[in-house]
Amino acid sequence: MSALRLEGVSKSFGGLRAVSDITLSTPVGKITGLIGPNGAGKTTVINLITGTLSLTDGRVCLGDSDLTTAEPDAIARHGISRTFQNIRLLAEATVLDNVMIGFHRHEKASFVSGLLGLGAARRETADIRAKSAELLQRFGLLRYADMPAGNLSYGHQRRVEMARAVATDPKILLLDEPVAGMNDVEAGELGDLYQELAASGIGLLMIEHNVRFVTRMCEHVYVMASGRMISEGRPGAVMQDPKVVAAYLGDKHAQG
Ligand SMILES: Nc1ncnc2c1ncn2[C@@H]1O[C@H](COP(=O)(O)OP(=O)(O)OP(=O)(O)O)[C@@H](O)[C@H]1O
Ligand SMILES: [Mg+2]
């Protein structure tokens, strides 16, 4: 099993201990929640997993592979993919091109044929184009394929971002507030997609402030506050944990 595991992970920025001794695991085939008030350290945890930030302490493992000191490229090749809290698409590029970028790391012919000017790269591009179109179909985006991604609604841009992340054929998918700013219908539709992805054998780790959504999607939830893990368990139980209630007191997202 290629579960993602964090053991005693810490990160300091100068004097600020943004993440302190975090231990968690993300099994494949499930959606695991990571919640907590603003500034709790949730996005920093994702940046530590993907190698965007280096750890101050602790270990990150995927199955038998220790990724603690691996470079972002290597971590991505091991099958860890993410979406961003603030959507990052190429706004001017078409929806199809944005998704094709996700397939890039699987291109095999590009080095050699790029040098020799052979047809293999062209064939591979055609292949990637077809696979990308398939993904667009699956994500209900095919009719937008030739539109600039920046022209799409917020909810659809989120879908494009998801399609790009799934194009990398991930084992683990890290979602940073994937339904923020969406209405319940849009969120519900994306939620169905996440459940399909989990059922297909991917492990999802989802940061989300919308407690209703987390409760519906996750069997297991971790709660961070001020860089520390303050609670974990079933969503229903965790939300009644006095430590969690206290951490959320006064936080506008608490009713989510
Ligand atoms: N690159 C950085 N340099 C310095 N401080 C940082 C950096 N990244 C994050 N921090 C700090 O670390 C703390 C945790 O931030 P983080 O973005 O991980 O929180 P979060 O739980 O994702 O919050 P939110 O719910 O608002 O997205 C904050 O105090 C933040 O200012
Ligand atoms: Mg964040």
UniProtKB/TrEMBL annotation:
The source's superkingdom equals Bacteria
Q: Name one Pfam family in it.
A: BCA_ABC_TP_C
MF terms (GO), sorted A to Z? ATP binding; ATP hydrolysis activity
PROSITE patterns per UniProt = ABC_TRANSPORTER_2
* Annotated signal peptide: none
A GO term from the CC aspect? plasma membrane
Which SMART domains does the record associate with it?
A: AAA
Q: Which Gene3D superfamilies is this protein grouped with?
A: P-loop containing nucleotide triphosphate hydrolases
Q: Which parts form a coiled-coil structure per UniProt?
A: none
The UniProt keyword set, sorted, is: ATP-binding, Nucleotide-binding, Transport
In this chain the ABC transporter domain maps to 4-251
What is the protein's name according to its record? ABC transporter ATP-binding protein
Q: Which organism is it from?
A: Mesorhizobium zhangyense
